[in-house]
Amino acid sequence: MATPLSDTPLSPLKTVAVVGLGTMGTGIAEVLVRAGRDVIGIDVSEAAAAQAVATLEASTARAVRREHLSDAERTDALARFRTFTDLAAAADADLVIEVTPESYDIKQQVFRALDGIVRPEAILATGTNALSVTRLAADSARPERVLGLHFFNPAPAMKLVEVVSSVLTAPTAVSAVTDLALELGKEPVAVGDRPGFVADGLLFGYLNQAAAMYEAKYASREDIDAAMKLGCGLPMGPLALLDLIGVDTARTVLEAMYAESHDRLHAPAPILKQLSEAGLTGRKSGRGFYSYEAPGSDAVVRDALTPLEGSVLAEGRSIRSVGVAGSGTMASGIAEVFAKAGYEVVLAARTEEKAGTAKARIGKSLSRSVDKGRMTAEAAARTLELITPTGSYDDFADVDLALEAVAEDLEIKQQLFGTFDKVCKPGAILATTTSSLPVVACARATSRPQDVIGMHFFNPAPAMKLVEVVRTVLTADDVHATVREVCAKIRKHPVDCGDRAGFIVNALLFPYLNNAIKMVQEHYASLDDIDAAMKLGGGYPMGPFELLDVVGLDVSLAIEKVLHREFRDPGLAPAPLLEHLVAAGCLGRKTGRGFREYARR
């Protein structure tokens, strides 16, 4: 009878077998050999094994050219990589990492065969990102030495490694592979066994919603991708990322997640099935959500869905002067943006003193731009002169565009639009910066709903390039065209979307944040591990809990409630933990405590 792994001292993981030499398997092999490990590469296909050797030779040659490796180190690394087509070659391995296709049948076959080949103390790791590690372990003769080791693509570049334990996994096995990951220069995070683990569990739900949004013709693929890149600082838009991952792969992951969670947010959008079955799987096939120059190419080419450049939507209205209502950070930021573009700006607040304070805030912002060399002192002075502060909305009488940036309260906004209706001249465009309220409800508070549109700026307005342009069913074509032209003049990127809760960015961002909260609530992973997973594995500039504390937990809860009320999806119900923290007054950085505690300034 074999000695239980938990009682057996683990040998150092010096020899590693990698089973499956596709892109991921070859990438893992490269990481290992460059870190001094002997690697046994195994693939049933001789062509795949030969390709792995060629890929490793090419990538290490590039590393030498970039002075990341010496010639001697490259020679040593290549000598440590041997390839075979028979699993029997894994007999002397201390660790086996299987990276075969995402199929229980294939993976179980591999694990059963390895049971009769590897030494009793060897650790077996699966590289799956979608299947149950527990189910694979249960089929093994020694389930205590089976775990998940999920690298991210491209493995040599991506720092994150998810170490996945099942209820059967011995702590010594987890400790051994965690130490190995650290020695490889990776950042391991410990997670439990559920489809998608942390990074993919959060990422694929978001990608699925983006696909559904596109399928519903709510926004174009270009606008959805631009919105998430510019609005959230992501390296890629969700539809372009689906093409990179593979539409078929995404569908497989989502099917596995839905089978486990029964959450409608994980039920694959029908378009994923349609594209997969048509062979339009993304970059690898040359066409998915976008069309590419050739299979495997990353160069997007025009197709029937590509918008025509420079096409005129309609003849717009003339905009020379702009009224901005509000005295907060958003209002002053928007006023600064318009003044920098040469527009005359009337900045109105409830009192002249508040308006004066808002103008002073703009002055300080402009001074910082001068100090950083972004503009001259003369240009800053000219910009500030274009802004007229006032305590009365009557001074909006001659503006061509009146834009409100007041509290996110429908009653307050409707009262303000009623005032705009009375004081603004005929033909003036009336705009709201709401991020979550129905624009049409503001429009109906006026006698001219055809002149009302949403212009959702992002904070801080001077720095953020995105504006969501929100048409209602009543908005006139020339109003829409004018606002698009104005966005170009103020050097912002407009994206078109319809008048529904969350528009593009918040409708995709906040369910992702809510799902992250649920992970912590269910003790599935820690705050720090989830934040690290999304920054390292997803390329997010901030982890979800960092972002929630910056946005404000009260603001986040309000948006979650609006999304849940509009779409009636149980999966969008705010996480109870979020509601509890808000009720306790823990609102994030602004109160000194949210998901984390902050030093008082």
Overall description:
Helix content is 44%, strand content 14%. By secondary structure, it is an alpha/beta fold. The chain folds into four domains: 15-193, NAD(P)-binding Rossmann-like Domain (Rossmann fold, 3-Layer(aba) Sandwich), CATH 3.40.50; 199-285, N-(1-d-carboxylethyl)-l-norvaline Dehydrogenase, domain 2 (Orthogonal Bundle), CATH 1.10.1040.10; 321-499, Rossmann fold, CATH 3.40.50.720; 505-591, N-(1-d-carboxylethyl)-l-norvaline Dehydrogenase, domain 2. It has an eight-stranded mixed β-sheet, with helices on both faces. Helix 7 (199-215) packs across helix 9 (238-245) and helix 7 packs across helix 19. The chain starts with 14 loop residues before the first strand and ends in an 18-residue tail after the last helix. 49% of the residues are buried. The model is unreliable at 1-11 (pLDDT under 50).
Topology, please?
Blueprint lengths: L14 E5 L3 H12 L3 E5 L3 H20 L5 H9 L1 E4 L10 E4 L5 H12 L7 E4 L6 H6 L7 E6 L8 E5 L6 H13 L3 E5 L7 H17 L5 H12 L5 H8 L1 H15 L8 H8 L13 E2 L7 E2 L19 E5 L3 H12 L3 E5 L3 H20 L5 H9 L1 E4 L10 E4 L5 H14 L5 E4 L6 H5 L8 E6 L8 E6 L5 H13 L3 E6 L6 H17 L5 H12 L5 H8 L1 H15 L8 H8 L18
Parallel strand pairs: 1-2, 1-4, 2-3, 4-5, 5-6, 7-8, 11-12, 11-14, 12-13, 14-15, 15-16, 17-18
Antiparallel strand pairs: 6-7, 9-10, 16-17
How many beta-strand elements? 18
**Individual helix count:** 22
* Average pLDDT reading: 94
Structural class: alpha/beta
Task: Write the CATH architecture name of the largest domain.
Answer: 3-Layer(aba) Sandwich
State the helicity in percent bands: 40-55%
Oligomer: single chain
- The CATH topology assignment of the largest domain is Rossmann fold
Q: What is the straight-line distance between the termini?
A: 63 Å
Order of strands across the widest beta sheet? Answer: 3-2-1-4-5-6-7-8
How large is the radius of gyration?
28 Å
Apparent shape: elongated
Keywords: Oxidoreductase
Protein name: 3-hydroxybutyryl-CoA dehydrogenase
InterPro entries: 3-OHacyl-CoA_DH_NAD-bd, 3HC_DH_C, 6-PGluconate_DH-like_C_sf, 6PGD_dom2, NAD(P)-bd_dom_sf
Pathway: Lipid metabolism; butanoate metabolism
